[in-house]
Design a protein that fits this description.
Length: 342
């Protein structure tokens, strides 16, 4: 098999890093205070095996019950738990493409069968996705790498139509411009729905590796059977718990990123790029029919990292993380200069 290839993580501190969708702003001061307080003799002890404290805090924030939540070492571990819980050898796993490529890797590890359905040009929900007779169906929403958002009415329709479990991966939903974009409130009416959330993006905790899954109690109880005994460490739990107690900090930073997203989108459009309507902390910029690998390589030479995907439908695209206003200006200046050279 071919393993998942994450974005580059350079050692050089002088690089403008716009390739892995990290938040350009620091986490809440409450997070830093919680981490300092947690670095004591208690680290000799195992963490809470069911992350009860974190789940109680998350339940209050998101309007569910603690037994509706399972925590993981990033939402990537929760994806692995989902595959181990619901997919055996030969079982079908459906998702629309292009999307987060880790799905395919995890299906292959589990010896499942990928049922891939092409997204339409506008990245709207493909009608064929619900008809794949899949044990598990993934919907990345907002989608990566397009940043596009499927409305909740379509999510409900999909959940009711699929044969098995629907997983809505909401790693980027906090950056959506409109309120009410999350599918979490739907878990009480859709017993086959699981919603994933990440602390890596909007909460600025990519280095802490924390994710949450929301579902009906029966599904969570089953997933708990296959998770590692102590899958989330003490420091990460403390960081996530503190982050949830300062939602205003996260929401303020998300609003700042939305403003910079508009700046980035407008600047790229003025250079002739087609930019998909993003509800994430990145944009997908396209020059139809033109391979953009040279642009990616020239930016890298100038110490700016963006993401290039050498795969069908994405070779004429660059995925660009929304940075600070200064980083966005620098990127646009360099891309404008490169545009005259390639």
């Amino acid at each position: 098999m071919t393993g998942y290839v994450p974005g580059e993580q350079p050692i050089d501190a002088g690089i403008v890093k716009l390739n892995t969708n990290e938040n350009p702003y620091p986490p809440s001061p409450k997070v830093r205070a919680a981490l300092r307080a947690s670095i004591n003799a208690s680290v000799r002890l195992y963490p809470e095996p069911l992350t009860q404290t974190l789940c109680l805090t998350a339940a209050a924030v998101y309007g569910v019950k603690a037994p509706n939540i399972i925590a993981g070492n990033g939402s990537d571990e929760l994806l692995s738990i989902l595959l181990r819980s619901f997919v055996g050898a030969g079982d079908r796993v459906a998702f629309a493409v292009p999307t987060y490529s880790l799905y395919e890797t995890l299906v292959e590890i589990q010896e499942g069968v990928c049922a891939k359905v092409e997204y339409p040009e506008d990245f709207s929900l493909p009608e064929a996705l619900s008809a794949q007779n899949a044990a598990l169906t993934f919907l990345c929403n907002p989608n990566a790498p397009s940043g596009t958002l499927i409305p909740l009415t379509d999510v409900v329709r999909l959940a009711r139509a699929v044969a098995g479990i629907l997983v809505v991966d909401e790693a980027y939903v906090d950056f959506a411009a409109s309120e009410g974009a999350s599918s979490i409130p739907l878990i009480n009416q859709l017993p086959n729905l699981i919603v994933l959330r990440s602390f890596s993006k909007s909460f600025s905790l990519a280095g802490a590796r924390i994710g949450l899954a929301f579902a009906c109690e029966e599904l969570v109880a089953g997933m708990l059977k296959v998770k590692d005994s102590y899958n989330v460490n003490r420091l990460s739990m403390a960081a996530a718990n503190a982050a949830l107690q300062d939602m205003r900090w996260m929401e303020r930073n998300a609003a700042r990123i939305r403003r910079s997203r508009c700046q980035l989108t407008d600047g790229l459009a003025h250079m002739g790029y087609s930019v998909y309507p993003s509800e994430a902390n990145f944009v997908l910029a396209r020059l139809p029919g033109r391979n953009l690998k040279p642009v990616y390589e020239l930016l890298k030479q100038r110490k700016i990292l963006v993401r290039y995907f050498d795969q069908p439908r994405l070779q004429d695209c660059l995925r660009i993380t929304v940075g600070t206003p200064r980083e966005v200006r620098l990127l646009l200046e360099e891309m404008k200069d490169i545009g005259t050279a390639v």
